[in-house]
Amino acid sequence: MLQPPSLIPLVPQTHTLPNGNMLQYFPNQALPLVKLDITLEAGSRYQQCKCLSHAANRLFGEATAKSDAFQVAEFLDFRGIVVEKTIDVCTAVVTFYFLRRYADELLPLVSEMFDQTLVTQPMFDAYVANRRQQLATGFQKTSYVARNRFYELLYGIDHPLGTYAMPDDVDVLTPDAVTDFIHRHYCLAIARIVLSGMVDDHLLSLTDRYLAPSHSHSHNQTFTQSSTPEEPPLPPPHSGNQAIKKNVPGDSPAGIPNAVQSTIRIGRILPMPWDSPDYARFMVLNTVLGGYFGSRLMSNIREDKGYTYGIYSVTQIHRGSIVFYITADVAAEVTQAAVDEVMNEINRLQQQPISEEELERVRNYMMGDFIRSIDGVFDLSERYRQMVATHVGEQLTTNLLDAIATVTPEQLQTLAQTYLCDLVTVVVN
């Protein structure tokens, strides 16, 4: 039987900044690049109106009190510095990729962004126009509508994971509201900072100087190093799951007129914590069902029936809950047949154990996928950042490696009988 490799700990080295904040880093002196991740508690759960956190994330750092938008963009482009900004329900992330030799020039600008971001009226107007168009375009896509309605059914419209923005929601935003959100939540003193790549003593000294603002010099006067934004309570997800089927036809306000394809979403909230051994075993079951190209759903619905170009099953960890779902885009005329085949594959897993040969193939795939996920310091740092952001610990990795090596066909069958039931089904066409 496949044996798990020695556990590779996702434990970074640490550096204490002058203000007491802890910086984590994954060094690799052979790599002339640096990745700087700054994670903030600035997700949509903290916003006072829809689109506010998204606007703050997109407009953050585009211009400062010292440098206009053209000057910031020219500075970054000339040095090949890539900036990525992402946001979810709980966190916002600002990531910089840069050559190590530009650190002396970049970090002062990063400090300036956090201390003096400026949201001008032209920048704001451009954001509003673009965001309204993005949302309007999204509602013309069956996959976008299906995702929104699926999470609404799982969590309820009052839960941050269950709500979503409409195009008109951008109209309530103002430049002052966006600026205030940035000042409240984009604060280095309470950020989680992770470096990876060519991290040396000089770079750490630069972080001491530019990424550790003292309370007296920060415009975020509300916060100190030990404080965090007050977290509004997350409404609990719906207790238990019900077998719900929701069809959103093309002639309804949320449907897609004359759609030639349908999007299917089938799934539920899993009633287990992330550190449960059952969850790690369920990850193996999910891989068997639809987690890789050789899965049962792909073999049946793509390769055999030809209903779709791709069908996948996924488990996704959120703070406080885990979602399992199956998703596929299929031709409109075979929608019900595709749903029926999904249920047939679930029934097969519930009624008979999988073969040792199939399980061994899945073990090998999952072990290889895990090793690829920690192949370099950038991969390590991203995995670590996501684990911290979702409040997941190393026990998940320990459980997963143990499950890959030791789970039995009978255990997978029991998991299928226990958890692949009471599923929410959303079809948008």
What distinguishing features does this structure have?
429 residues; alpha+beta; Cytochrome Bc1 Complex, Chain A, domain 1; 6-stranded mixed beta sheet; 5-stranded mixed beta sheet; 14 helices; 42% helix; globular
Question: Explain this structure to me?
Answer:
This protein is α+β, with helices and mostly antiparallel strands and 429 residues long. It folds into two domains: 13-217, Cytochrome Bc1 Complex, Chain A, domain 1, CATH 3.30.830; 245-428, Cytochrome Bc1 Complex, Chain A, domain 1. Helices cover 42% and strands 18% of the residues. The strands form two sheets. The chain has a six-stranded mixed sheet with strand order 1-2-6-3-5-4, with helices on both faces. A five-stranded mixed sheet has the order 7-11-8-10-9, sandwiched between helices. Strand 4 (82-87) and strand 5 form a beta hairpin. The two termini are 45 Å apart.
Give a brief description.
The chain is of the alpha+beta class. It has 14 helices and eleven strands. The chain has two domains: 205 residues, 2-Layer Sandwich (Cytochrome Bc1 Complex, Chain A, domain 1); 184 residues, Metalloenzyme, LuxS/M16 peptidase-like (Cytochrome Bc1 Complex, Chain A, domain 1, 2-Layer Sandwich).
- CATH top level of the largest domain is Alpha Beta
H/E element string?
Answer: EEEHHEEHHHHEHEEHHEEHHHHHE
Which of globular, elongated, flat, extended, rod-shaped describes the shape?
Answer: globular
Give, in spatial order, the strands making up the sheet with the most strands. 1-2-6-3-5-4
Please report which band the strand proportion falls in: under 5%, 5-15%, 15-25%, 25-35%, 35-45% or over 45%.
Answer: 15-25%
Report the end-to-end length measured between terminal Cα atoms.
Answer: 45 Å
**Derived structural class:** alpha+beta
CATH topology of the largest domain: Cytochrome Bc1 Complex, Chain A, domain 1
Mean pLDDT: 90
What's the β-strand tally?
11
The count of domains is 2
The total of helices stands at: 14
What's the Cα radius of gyration?
23 Å
Q: Which spans of ≥5 residues are poorly predicted at pLDDT below 50? A: 215-227
The main sheet comes to: 6 strands, mixed
CATH architecture group name of the largest domain: 2-Layer Sandwich
Under CATH, the homologous superfamily of the largest domain reads: Metalloenzyme, LuxS/M16 peptidase-like
Helix content: 40-55%
